[in-house]
Each structure stands twice: as structure tokens, then as C-alpha cells.
Task: structure prediction
Amino acid sequence: QQIQEDLNKQLFDNLVSFLRRSHSEFQEKTTEWTCRMKSREIPTAALVLGVNVTDHDLTFRSLSEVLQNNITPYIALLEAKDCPGIKNLIQKLMGQLMNCYIDVDSLEDEDHVQVSQNRIRCSMTSIISWYQNVRKKTDSETPSKKRTSSSRHWQSPPVVVIFKDMESFTTKVLQDFIVISSQHIHELPLVLIFGIATSPMIIHSLLPHSVSSLLCIELFQSLSSKEHLSTIIDKLLLTAQFPFKLGEKVLQVLINIFLYHDFSVQNFIKGFQLCIVEHFYSQPLSVLCCPLADAKKRVNSLSHDQCENIRRLPSFRRYVENQVSEKQILLLTADDFLKEITQKLLEDLHVYHENYVSVLRCLHVFTSSLPKYPLGKQIRELHCVCLENQVWETEEYESSLQLARMLNKSDLVTMLQQCVEIFVSSSGKEFDKTVEKLKEFLTQFQELEAEAFQEQDGSISTQKELQKKTDLYHLQKTLLELKESRRSKKLTKFEMLRFEVVDYIDSLVRTYLVPADQKTLHEIVYFNTASVLRGHLNAAPRVALHTALNNPYCYLKNQALKSDGGNISNKAPDICIVYKLHLECGRLINLVDWLEAFATVVTAAEGPNADAASSDQVDDIIHARFIRAVSELELLGFIKPSKQKTDHVARLTWGGC
Amino acid sequence: MPNLEHPAYPAATLLRLESLVPCRESQVSMLLSIFGERQQFSIPSIFIYGHTSSGKTYVMQTLLNTLQLPHVFVNCVEYFTSRLLLEEILIQLQSCSSETEQTSHVPCDNFNDFVRLFKQAVVSRELQDQTLYIVLDRAEQLREMEANILPAFLRLQELTDRNVTVVLLSEIVWELFRQNTGCFEPLTLYFPDYSIAGHLQKILSQNHPPEYSPDFYAAYINILLGVFYMVCRDLKELQHLAALNFSKYCEPVVKGEANERDTRKLWKNIEPHLKKAMQTVYLREISSSQWERLQHDDGEPGQLKGLSAHAHVELPYYSKFLLIAAYLASYNPVRTDKRFFLKHHGKIRKTNFMKKHEKTSNHLLGPKPFPLDRLLAILYSIVDNRVAPTANIFSQITSLVTLQLLSVVGHNDQLDGPRYKCTVSLDFIRAIAR
Result:
């Protein structure tokens, strides 16, 4: 679990640094603007963030952090739900500004007086007077105190107001705020940042021209979340450094949720974390899922039970069955020998991952430029395919190889160069030869180019000869010869080389891109139970309710409730019986009929004689039970009282038409 | 044009005033005659209206400042509650006569308090012998405050028994203010637009940069007006545009390619540039600072895309389908659902005809609300593979609402059967459906 925490931290570091990069450009702009505040326009940044609203919080937090460190201590983050009116907006703004001022200078006693005073009067003038006070103070303090944080900001730091969700603000509030602040722009250097989820057109639809002409809007497009995701996948999954891996199905589930539902990188990361937790929780051997050096140490300290666990792994069994019989016995009985072998196998697995990643990237270089993308445009798709089964057996792979054989030379050369770079940068030791081989290909291509020049000369000379020949017969003959030579020439020179290259890549793929579940001990590092994950992440409230009411055994685990399909057992809870009965009804349910049916079901087991003896007496209790069940259903939102008929209830669920 | 003359004020001040407010001489002289001399009681309230940027605020401000009349100037948008407004007036009043003494804050909750405090303030500042002017800018906001504020301001002279005049500035006519009887009718004064091109020309060329001759700048303004006059008569906007594009206009002169008299050459240089500005800066497609940067490096304009160029919105897979389903539910009548979305209905030819016919009329009518169940039913029928009604789908509906692509009709707290409306246009749906 310690590793998991580590991983989370690294993950968020990644994310924040990524965001920082995307915003660095933006900061430069802000500094530039604030210098040129001459007109009445308020400098404004429109930040287009995409529809993944859940990620925005993190983005804004890191953005304000970065701004706070580099530009200004005065930042206010405003959310639409806090500001239903202009009054609330200004109150909120003041509160945040004053607080951050306290953070900077920690002169609390004086500020408290100020704040309490201003609680009575919240208006732009008080903000301005506050700002001027603060500036006077900082001006007098900075030379004496030498605070690093305040000296980093300039003389008049701007006040940055961030509107987190521009779409949800009411137009009037925004308009009023902009009009007010534009009147004080000379006294209060204000910078607005609009967080926009959909498209910048929303500014025009929210603000009339008279207001938007007060803004000096500059647009910043943050990276789309799809790109964001692919960088995260790149950094987390496609490296050998993180010991934990996702199986094919799990990855597919996570990516599907991302693409189909919310585009939220945050949720993706949460899902990933859930996978980690689930893996460490469910797989006893996950102690070995850690960096290689640690894993080796841990193998040595394994107990007997854990060794037995290793022996029980299906991939390890397969491995044992392929060994010689003496070795088999040793593996199955001697713990020490097993540990040795396990260490070796783990090392193999690690090396396999290293190789896998670089070859995968190499293959991606080839396939991503093919027309129609038979193996997918993104490296994650390729990764999924490779994890699923043997890539070279799929049809898509065949077709992509076919297409690769038809590439033109310049493309091929650039791809080869890219591949060389990938292999050089990878840490695997086995790739020296590959690099050599690829470089050899490159030089061959260059030679070919030189040859091609000569050949052109040659063909020109033959054409000249051709013009000399006047005899029809001779002409025909030479033409035929020329044709033949051309055909053969093509096959011999460039195409041969091309085939060679493609075949070589093919061989690389076949040796290195073996799907992970064929590797021994893959269970240790791969998490592959997609159904669990789907159950956790893809909540289906309606389905869950239906199963709970229809088949109470599923949740209650009571043997008596184990029913066999259609009939309604009387041992089930009342609400289940009522629910099942109501499924058979139409849109309007007659309560009397319902009660009748309920009573029959409940009393069914008690036998006809009991029923006949005390029909009135039992009815009272059953009636009460029925009423309670029905009101429970109403609480759950399955029915509601109808106004059309007094003794009927309306059904709200489907199928009642 | 009548020259300003008034016995109470020195001629030099009046002359300066006249030079500061071009094309508004008649209004100013009217106001002056209403104001009378300092100690004379004036009319209790004046209502001035006119279109955007017809110089109401500017004229009032310069008039009161140059003549050094005691006044309070308040913007009603900024002080959005009556309390803030009244307190602000009092604070300004306290500081307007004596800057030295920092006054303490006085709470003022209602108009009664205001009248009392106002009397005290006037007495303590020795303003009894002069007319005090309270100018309320953007007075249309007063209508949204408490009902007594506006009538009380109109009768402030009567209520306080002091020499005070309230001036209301607004963009809308007085008839829209009149709410009930018993309201004091103020003297209304109309500021016409600077409609004649000559007016604009005169005002704009007044503040020419010192490096260049007034004639040169006037020629530039002439060209600018020639391009923009058709689309924009807003003085502020024109001033802004003039400031932005002037450096480009001067470029040939600075480089030495043309002298200041060579108007024709300068015109050729600037005209395409201005046309481009009309398409971009005027509509705020790109910001003015971006525009300036563009001018500096003279780069190709295709590089900088305007705001509307980023109109494309990326949506998750199911969100797209949800939105399309919502659109269909909004614009198709319920009775056609069975025909459109069930597989075996038989009457295909008729349906197609009906569809075409109804679509045109429905688009004119606007979106109609639809219940959640209908939305989901349509969603299931338009998505190819099976969709489980997971929590994710439901949360996407709400997130679409927050993005203002859908909107909830009716009360928010109605849990059973919420109704939605699709608020996006056909073009948007087309772009998504592609």
C-alpha cells in the first residue's frame, strides 16, 4: 500500500507539472497585459477548458497556485453557485481578497478590524481603499523586511478574479460586475479569467456588446482532455518503471468510461487508483509488485504459504509443465529453488516490459501514419490490441503490413529514423543490434538514392537511343525490353529493401510484443478483473434496485429466499412482493386489487383452512403491512398518488404504458 | 450656436466649458439657466435621457467640475442596494467640502435616516447657501430598489427643506419610470445622438496626438468615419478604434514614404486595414492588445483566430447522443416518436413527408419541453448498441444542464419527472452529429 501512495503522489506531480506547462504561456501574457492598462478595457483571459467539468477544479487550483507564486498574491476564485446576485459576488470577492492578504502578511489584528468594518459595507470602493492600504503597507515594508514572496511580485500586483464556470453565472451579475469594475480599472488593476467549458461563443451570448466592449479578451485553449489522457497513459502505463500494469479488459473499461461518459482525466485517475487498491487487496502475491530490486529482496523472505501461492498461479503451472520432470519436482517441493526461479522470472518479466514498450512505440510509428489506421491512431489502442492477443495473428495487423509495404521512400526513411531514436533512448540492452540493423537500412536507402540518380541518366540515354531508331520493328522490340527491365528493376532495388524493412519490423513484433498473459508470473503485476471494476465504476441504480426487489436473495443471502424465477414466494420481504405484483399492472394501479393480490400471496403458505377461519382478523395485519410496503415504494419513487382516480396510484417506472 | 453666457459665472470659465463640451452648447446653456445662481433655489429634480454615449455623464461632470458647484456623483449600478447608495451619497457629501477630516462611517438603513443625516451633513458643511447637486447615473437601476427610493429622490428638496437638486441620468425615457401616482414629475431634458457626422468628426478630432498636426488627424478621422459610420455611431467605440488604428495610419509618414499632406496615399494604405479591423476588433473577435501585436509584426491574420473560430465543442460519446436525443425530443412532436423510432411501423413514405413539413414550422416555434423518460427512450433507440441506464448517464444530463446546452423547465425541486429543453441550435447539432 505504501507503493500505492507513492504512485499517487507521482501521478499528481505529473499532472500538476503538465498543467503548469500548459499555463506557462498564459502567465507571460498576463504580465504583459497588466503593463498596458491604459484604456478602460479590463484585460480578460478566456480559458477554454473542455467539457470535463470535474477536472476543472484541479486545474484552477494549480493555476491559482502558480499565479500566487509568480505574479500576484491577490487571487479570488468565484463559483457561480456562490454568486446568485451581484451583492453576494462582491462579498465573496472581498472575503477572498482579504483572506489572502492575511496570508501574505499575517498582520491579523489590524485586518480583523478592517474585515469587520467592511462586513457592513461591501462595495467596490471599499475594495479599492483596501487595495491602496495594502499597497502602501507593502511598499513601506518590503525594503525593511525583505520578504522573498512579496519582492517577487511587482510594485502594483494585479488582482486576479477567476470565474470558474462562466456558463452558470447569470448574465446580469456578470454584466454589472464588469461595468462596475471597468469604472475603477485605473484605481484597481483587475484581471479577469473566465473558465469556459463549451465554446468562447458563450461570451457573446452572455454579454451584450456594450459590456463585452469593455473587455479585452484573449483566448487560451487548454489541451483537450483526450491529449491529456494519452500523455498520462504514456507516462504511467507505457513505462517499465511502474511495476503495476493494467490488463487489457480493465484498460478498455477505463478508456470506455472516459470516452463515452465524461472525458474526465480525474475520474480516469481515480479508476486507476481503484485498480491499484483492488489489486493489492485481492491478489496475495501483490507484495512482489514493486520495483525490481525490492521485489528480489522480498522473494527471499517469502513464507511457505506464499510459495504455495506462486505454485498455484496458472501461468506458473504452465511454466512447470514445460520443464524437465526432475526440475518439476524441485519446483514443486523445494522453496529455495522456487525462489531462485521466481527471481529469474521476475527479471525476465521486467526485461520483457522494457522491450515491449520500445517495440510498441516503434510499431506505432509505422501504423499511425497508415491510411485508415487499421491498428488505431493512438498508441493506447495499439497497446490494447497487443495486450489482448498475439498481434500478428489479427487481420488488422496483416492489412497494416500490406499497407506498410506500399509506403514511399521519404516516409519510410523518417519512420526508420524515429525508430532508431526510440531504441537509442530506451534502456534495453538487446537493442544495440536492432539499432545497427536499422541504421544499416538507412544507409542502404541513401545508397539507393545515389543509384537512382545514375539510373535516371541511364534511362534518359536509352530514350535518346529510342528516338534515333526509326525502324518500327526495332522500336517495338526495344520498348518491350524497356518495359521488362523496368518491372524487374523496381522489384530488385527499392522494393526489395522495403520488404526487408517491413519483414524486419514484423520479426521484431513477433519476438517482443507477446501478449502479457502468456508470460509467467504475469498475475503479480497485471490487474485483470474488469467485471469488478465495472461494477464499482459504472453504477447502475435502476438495475441494482430492480435486482434487489426482484431477487432479494442476491443481497440478503438468505437460503429461504432462493426463488426459481417467475413465482412470487411469500417469504420475501413485503416490499418485494408488492413490487413484483406492481410489475404486472398497468399505468394506474387499483389499490384494492393490489391488496387482494398481496393478501393471497402472503397467506398462500398458511393453507386454506387458516385463511377461511379468520379472514377478518388477519386482514388487519396484512393491511398494515401492505400499506407500509406501498408507502415504501412511494418513497423509492416507483409510484405516486394519482389525481385521476382516488383509489388508484400511478406507476412511474417503465413498462406501464 | 448660442454662446454660453450667464451672469453668475465669469466669462473665462464659461469659455473653457464651451471648449470642453463640443456640440452640446444648447443643452449646457439650458442647464445653466435652470441652475440659476449659486444661492438660488433650483428645480427639485431633473431627468436627462439620451442614447448610449451621447455625453450625458460627461457633460454633467464637466459642467459641475468647471463651475465648481458642490455636487455628489453616484453610479447606481455600482451601489446596487439602496443602503449602499444612500451611504455613498452621505460619504461623498461629507468629503466634498472638507477633505482634511476623515469622517467616521455612519450606518444609514432607510430613507428616513438618510433625510435626517442629510440635513445634518448640509448644516455641518455650511452648504445652506448653495444649491447642492446629486447626480444619479444609470438611474434606471433605481426602479429595482425599494419602491420609495425613486419618488423620494424626486422630492428630496421638499423632504429635506434644503437647497438640493437631484439629477437623474438614464438611457430610457421617463415614461418607463413612472410607476404610480403622486410621483413628482421632474423636468425632462433630452440629449440627442451625435447623429450628424460632423459632430462626431469634430469631437473625435479634438484630442489629436501632439506630434501630429490637427489637420492630419482630422483627415484620419474622416477616413475612419467613412469606414465605420455605417456600422457604428457609438462615440466611445469610435474613439477606441481611432486610437487603435492610428499608429498604422502614421506608418508611411514615419517611414518617410509619404508626407502628411499626401492623403490619397495614406488612404490607400489604411483602407484595407480598417476593413479588417471592422471584422475583427469591432466585434471583439480578437482583443485590442492582440490587434496591436498583429500590427507590430505585420503577420498574417490567419494565424490569430478569433473567438468564434473555436466554436467546435468536444463532447463525450454518450453526451453527443444525449444532446441529439434532446434536440429530437425538443423539436419533434410526441406523436411522431412512434413512427420515427420504432423499427416496424410501415408508413415510411408518409413519415418522410411529414417530417419535412413539421421541421420547418417547429423551428420557428422554438424548443418544447420534454420529460426525462422520453429523452432516455429516444437515446436508447438512436444508439446502436445497448446502453445501460447507469449513474454516469444521469450525471451527464445534469452536466449538460450546467453547460447550458440543456435547460431545466419548471421547478428544480421537482424530483419526479423533471422536464428539459434543448437550447442549442441546429448548426450545433449538425456539427456534433458529424
Notes: The CA atoms of residues 213 and 560 of chain A lie 73 Å apart. Confidence is low (pLDDT under 50) at residues 31-39, 102-120, 141-154, 610-614 of chain A. Strands of chain A lie at 42-48, 75-78, 159-163, 190-196, 215-221, 245-246, 526-527, 588-590, 639-641, 648-651.
